[in-house]
Queue: 2 jobs
Job 1
Amino acid sequence: MLSIKKLSAYSTFKKGIMIPSLVFILSVTFVSSVFPNRTATLLGRVQDWIFVNMNWMYVWSVTFFVIFLFFLVFSKYGSIKLGDNHAEPEHSFFSWISMLFAAGMGIGLMYFGVAEPISHFSDQTFRPLNDITRAKNAQLYTFFHWGIHAWAIYGVVGLSLAYFTYRFKLPLSLRNCFYPILKNKVNGIGGDVIDTFALCSTFFGITTTLGFGVVQLNAGLVQVGVLGGSGFGYQVAIVSVIMAIAILSTTSGLNKGIKFLSQLNIIIAVAFMLFIIIVGPTVFLLGSFSEGIGYYINQFFNLTFNTYAYEPETQPWFFNWTILYWAWWISWAPYVGLFIARISRGRTIREFIGAVLIIPTAFNFLWMTVFGNSATWVDRNVTHGALSRMADNADELLFLFLSHFPVPAISSAVAILIIFIFFVTSADSGMFVMNSIATKNAAKSPKWQLVFWGVLLALLALVLLNAGGLQSLQTMTLITALPFSIIMLLFCYSLIQGLIIDNNYYGRALSPATSYWSGEFWKDRLQRILSFKSKEAVADFMLQTVQPALNELADEFNSRGIAAVVTTRERPMEVALTIKHALIEDFVYGVRNQSKVISDFLVNEENVPGAAGNNTYIPKTFFGDNRTGYNVESFTKKEIIADVLKQYERFIELSSEVKNELFTDNTSKRP
């Protein structure tokens, strides 16, 4: 009892999120395990009703997400950064792509790379068509399900989270995507409900993936002779090893374990794909990849809007594949979106959308072409339907496919390694995300909390696997996708509201009643323009001109009952005037001694005063809202005072407008 109290004292869990989430997770697990058949039947009926009667809702929602993101790419908002205007990306481009890819759908590529194209190719719905048409359509439908539409779903959630977190400095939480609508109410019960929904959805998605994936991994290990069977005992061992490594990875930190495993796996996966290209029907694969992309582009709008209302005989396939996929991607969006947002600070909106939509989609297309088209080619020309007859046994299909290529034992072992690492990266990033949700993105959490999530995932996945309740859990997860699609539409509305305010806030011109200078003392100003400054000269200017100006202003503010303070820092040299506020953001006007690189052409130009080297220094302003500053080296003391008042006038004017509360409200950003 004492140890539990100690853990609770050092915990960063938020009770309003954690307690209802655990109650719901354990209750659903209990019902699904004790009454697996009844639960599966009941939930199956609910899912079927939704898919048959509300399929248009999924189609319209996903279509809107695609159009919305493309609009942002080509709009004036695309250049806005996910962070301060001067923010730099936290991770390299390769690391960023590797992590978002591994968390997004890496494990699915191994499971469905062969299984889905073969399933479409052999489906009875398309039997009247000839082999070539069925093979081309199999590639087309697989592209459709794993392409831009899927990543648009992830992109909407990830972009909303990243924007409000890094641009508005709100905690990384789904609730804060509603801030333009709910304002400070996001910190109440409604916000807890949203985060509880996200936590449960993430937990169930990872649990079902872990449970079903273990079966495939078990089948592969039997295939290569590592394990002697596929009983529950073997599955316990596999889950234990996966979660032990995942816990070690996630407790080592995002920049170590998760990043390393993601990069390692993408390298191995690419090498594995190249192996199939080289030893498989190379010319056919390269040609069909080009043709497949063209076919996808040509059919893009038809596929996007099609509900098969005029083809009732095709609708069961449509419900079991397209609608199920849209529901599955939506149900995974809280988890993947949170993780993508966590690693995307410093990217522009245009860069974020372009990378999230295009790069993973292009890789998915290449992967599905290599494995899917190789499978249909082998099925048509080598096995004469053997792979098609195994379409319902996706766990073993990949390894049966590899048996028709050279060194099947080695290729199967590599496939198992990739599946294994993808499981680990999904689990460790999942633990990271769940802990982030449950703590409202606490700055630092004890490592035992990450261990807790790993152990809970492993235990409940095994319980459901043994009791046959995984299907019920998966079905319930798919059902929750419908209400979350509506939530995502509201995310889009909130995001566009924030972007409009953002553009207005940072694009606001200075007051026309003021100017930088009047022309007085123009000879002194000319002398400053024509001289390159040393670090010491700029420091002297700041101490002799800037600091006295700010001190004089602070004294005047204080005499009028407005608390103002001037602070000075030596490294780097900076002087700042700060007026602190309780309910709105602080007003800060500062000047920093900043280095600047000079062009070689200017250094060597004879018609301007020369410089001793390629570096000079300038006194550059900075502000509390992180707007881009400017050089004030030509300003006199009075002009510095006038410039501060000009910025303060702008600050007061912006703070007085209701629409700018998103930027000026300080109460929602308190820890």
Note: The radius of gyration is 29 Å.
Job 2
Amino acid sequence: MQRFQVWAPHARDVRITIDGATHDMRAEDRGWWFCDEVPQAGQRYTFSLFDGTEWTKPLPDPRTRSQPDGVHGPSEVVADDFEWTDHDWAGIHLRDQVIYELHVGTFTPEGTFNAVTDKLEYLAELGVNAIELMPVQPFAGTRNWGYDGVDWFAVQHSYGGPEGLKRLVDAAHAEGIAVILDVVYNHFGPEGNYNPLFGPYTTHGRTGWGDVVNISGPGSDEVRAYILDSVRQWLSEFHVDGLRLDAVHAYDDRRAYSLMEEIRRVADEVADETQVPRTIIGETDQNDPRIVNDESRGGYGLSAQWLDDVHHCVHTLITGERQGYYIDYGTVELLADTLRNAYRFRDTWSEFRARTHGRPLDLSQVAPWRMVTFTTNHDQTGNRAAGDRPSQSLSPEQLALRAATILLSPFTPMLFMGEEFGARTPFPFFVSHTDDELARMTREGRLQEFARQGWNYADVPDPLDPKTFESARLDWEFEKEQVLLHDAYRELLEIRRTRGFNREDLRELQVEHGETWLTMRDAAEGSVTFAANFSDAPVTVPVGGELVYSFTTPKVGAEETVLDPWGFAVLA
């Protein structure tokens, strides 16, 4: 920052207070205001706005880089003198990544970036080479999933602030691990969002989490610049390897050039400048190929998208749950179809939506590794009433089967922290709002939402209670069963890396199935076959050979194999 500046088209006058001294600001083009005071690292500052009648209270900078006293406090000038050591880092292409999603506050007892750094060697030994951090932008208090962030250029102070994040990225690269940052550009959090006082950052309408961000209406050029400058900051200054864009279907994206295209172009520019690949992943359940199709085919050209469908197929088969959107899943036939086509819905009927949904994805043009899938994630765990994990109710055999199906699929796999050892701690929704009315609305809103889904009120923990947050902290003391599951994950990831399961495309993938079993293999010479039993009774599958790996004890013959209940086998 060369001088203090702020975009405030709503204001008639603007003042800035720097370390207690107040200065007038002058208006320039298109709602920008400037002060010639030279920023110095460590200075605290606020803006006050005059609307023609009265002055606001002192407000933090919408482009603040640091909020050491929280989202309501003054902003801090940050030094840009971090000494990077990752000069030899060449990055990791998405097709070669195994991603590990984690929440900084609950991944370790300390809940800091430094503590995550201490676990990098563990992750590398497991077979993980990319970590995806749930949002780290500032939120009210110290407990939050991160999706209530309000300052899109800053980093949560209790995690370690901007320097702490840079240290983590630098250390991860030294360990051979890429870093993906989960970012939320579809809404602002409900507490500490002062941006609408400055200008038209939001517009009419609701996303379900907050007001719609103004990326298409009057004044949206500067709001888009606000987002794109944030994207460039993370990818360039912070050396982050990629971004996961939260709920892109909630963007009010009606202009001729999609915001997603513009984000991808920034990522491409940074990749060209640094010669390190940058990945942009979009989260959507729309089964819309425009997310990953390139511009010549009418798409936005993102690197990848989160793919819920494989998770939903596997989850319903193993748990038997069919409530909510799970009603559209539940058979081995649907799992086989989704493995072949990526999208469950391709302009086909959805019972949950009571309408047709989706559009076919041409997998001859889009490689399967551009779909990111998982056995669970923060949503699929935390949006259950109690935040219970699959590992709290399923057997080790069922957990290993889930893992094998995902890790040996042709898609890019993502683990959710702790699943690799069958964590017994839940991951419920938690917040630490300081506004009493907002706290009340949050509690009631969660109860009402779960009631609509048929959950019991008694199963829903209080999201404001510190004990709810504490319950989510991972327990790193493993019991015997957890050690066995951890070893299975490590073996499966090694098989994925060395046995050809990281496929470039699906053209040679063969998926066969019966009522309760499924086999998957690449027709290329020398490949191996994955065979799985999605039932509680033994089943014979029409493939045999040499056993490479199994979590159970299948009976392997030359032409057929008997799989144990919930068993699988990797066969050469």
Note: The CA atoms of residues 162 and 521 lie 45 Å apart.
